[in-house]
Structure to design on (544 residues):
């Protein structure tokens, strides 16, 4: 039996488009004499569909497409991810399902048992958990079908389990000869290694070949790195497709395979590829062809420019330099050097006179008051207005250039540098920004060394540096990591050798900036805990 695992890039809710992708692959498989083709979780509707699932008309259309796919199955068995419905008076009546079709008909439906309800996942809100587990029997073979989270509860792999039930164990008890896992598993740093080791252990533990296929593509903040893998009954990886692009693997049950060597990419390589995919898909799936951003001469905007150029092409990136009286000559010179290297489009709009006019208008209101952060923020907001004007006039998507360290501590200006439709590096700590810059320059100087070596500064007052307000980024980012991603508190963080007063100051800054983050552009998730849907804290709270 020949089985093909296909990682496709669906667009959420674009049923016609996703349907055509599935059918195209079925037709190719017919020509290749494939017996069974397997697609990822919710491949017909894209993941996560969120409150689209509350719309009866949407579910009705999905169900009609389920039947249309079945009609194309013919001589090829088709297993794809979609939504099914049961009409009763209990719960949501909606299931996250794997649908098996053959010879023009839906033969069986396999529903997801474990519904994740943490971080970015909220499946309990929408789906009912499966009340029964059944095997997929096809051409004399028995398959145990699991959907993403169903495989993430092995008692011998996880120290702490989230559920008291293991669907993989259940399908093996029922007599499954091959384990299938259809996933929409989002990317985060280090996750590829965990996934691979987990499925290897599942295959080895149960002595069953294990097949994994993942969704590829980015949907708003979530990036799916895709890839399909096959493990033999001893847990050896024997087949693997490319990640960060649509890909497939062909597995012949009757063939003997040798284990393959799988080199896990360095984290920085994965992050780089993920961010490029995130920008590319966000633009393509929302209809934007070009992007605009403010290029300040700093490392953050330089990095975003490079990522945008790689995602969309230099002809589709427009950079705006907006110097004020506090901008250094080097900032413009360094920005021009980057622009020339990348071949992106650009313009210069000085804001000196605009800033002076704003201060004149406010002169009476601010009488006898010293200049402070108010005037600093005015400059940022003037730049935001100019960028939004150009975005509106020409239909460009504005990219915000703030990093995670800034967003965490509130070192960003609402309606200023936070303006934008997408914040590509809002989940990238400042130290990781430098690491990405060095990676980009590994073979050639793309980002000018002057930008990388420059002392970080917002350039909103004379001789300003980030360290006037923040500790050095190598210290700051470690504290932020422990607080944001590991949910540790003051005393726990201090145990790692940090000054208690500094830790208390930083944590207060993070808490106080919550109102800013609630108004921020969506960002691309690359860590285990990104700001946005996966981290939900109240703005109004007095716990600390």
């Amino acid at each position: 039996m020949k089985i093909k695992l296909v990682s496709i890039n669906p667009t959420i809710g674009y049923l016609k488009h996703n349907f055509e992708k599935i059918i195209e692959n079925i037709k190719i498989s017919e020509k290749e004499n494939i017996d069974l083709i397997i697609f990822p979780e919710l491949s017909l509707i894209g993941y996560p569909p969120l409150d689209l699932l509350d719309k009866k008309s949407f579910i009705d259309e999905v169900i009609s497409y389920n039947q249309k796919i079945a009609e194309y199955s013919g001589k090829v068995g088709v297993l794809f991810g979609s939504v099914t419905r049961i009409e009763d008076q209990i719960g949501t009546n909606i299931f996250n399902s794997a649908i098996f079709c053959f010879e023009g008909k839906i033969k069986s439906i396999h529903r997801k048992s474990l519904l994740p309800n943490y971080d970015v996942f909220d499946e309990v809100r929408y789906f009912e958990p499966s009340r029964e587990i059944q095997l997929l029997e096809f051409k004399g073979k028995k398959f145990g079908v699991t959907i993403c989270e169903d495989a993430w509860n092995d008692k011998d792999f996880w120290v702490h389990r989230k559920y008291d039930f293991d669907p993989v164990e259940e399908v093996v008890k029922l007599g499954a000869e091959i384990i299938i896992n259809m996933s929409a598993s989002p990317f985060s740093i280090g996750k590829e290694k965990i996934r691979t080791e987990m499925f290897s252990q599942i295959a080895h533990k149960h002595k069953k070949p294990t097949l994994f296929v993942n969704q590829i593509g980015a949907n708003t903040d979530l990036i799916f790195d895709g890839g399909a893998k096959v493990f033999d009954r001893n847990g050896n990886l024997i087949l693997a497709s490319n990640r960060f692009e649509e890909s497939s693997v062909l597995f012949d049950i009757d063939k003997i395979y040798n284990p393959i060597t799988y080199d896990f990419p360095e984290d920085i390589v994965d992050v780089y590829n993920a961010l490029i995919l995130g920008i590319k898909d966000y633009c393509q799936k929302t209809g934007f062809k070009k992007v605009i951003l403010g290029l300040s001469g700093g490392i953050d905007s330089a990095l975003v420019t490079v990522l945008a150029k790689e995602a969309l092409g230099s002809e589709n990136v427009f950079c705006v330099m907006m110097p004020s009286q506090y901008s250094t000559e080097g900032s413009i010179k360094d920005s021009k050097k980057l622009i020339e290297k990348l071949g992106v489009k650009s313009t210069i709009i000085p804001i000196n006179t605009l800033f002076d006019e704003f201060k004149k208008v406010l002169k009476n209101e601010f009488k006898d008051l010293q200049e402070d952060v108010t005037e600093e923020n005015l400059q940022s907001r003037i730049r935001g207005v100019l960028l939004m004007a150009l975005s509106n006039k020409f239909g460009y998507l504005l990219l915000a250039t703030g990093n995670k360290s800034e967003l965490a501590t509130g070192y960003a200006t609402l309606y200023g540098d936070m303006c934008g439709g997408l914040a590509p590096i809002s989940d990238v700590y400042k130290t990781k920004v430098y690491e990405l810059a060095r990676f980009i320059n590994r073979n050639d100087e793309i980002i000018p060394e002057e930008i990388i070596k420059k002392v970080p500064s917002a350039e909103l007052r004379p001789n300003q540096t980030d360290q006037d307000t923040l500790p050095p980024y190598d210290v700051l980012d470690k504290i932020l990591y422990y607080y944001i991603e590991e949910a540790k508190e003051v005393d726990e963080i201090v145990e790692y050798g940090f000054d208690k007063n500094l830790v208390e100051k930083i944590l207060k800054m993070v808490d106080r900036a919550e109102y800013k983050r609630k108004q921020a552009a969506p960002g691309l998730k690359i860590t285990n805990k990104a700001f946005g849907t996966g981290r939900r804290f109240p703005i109004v709270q007095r716990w600390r």
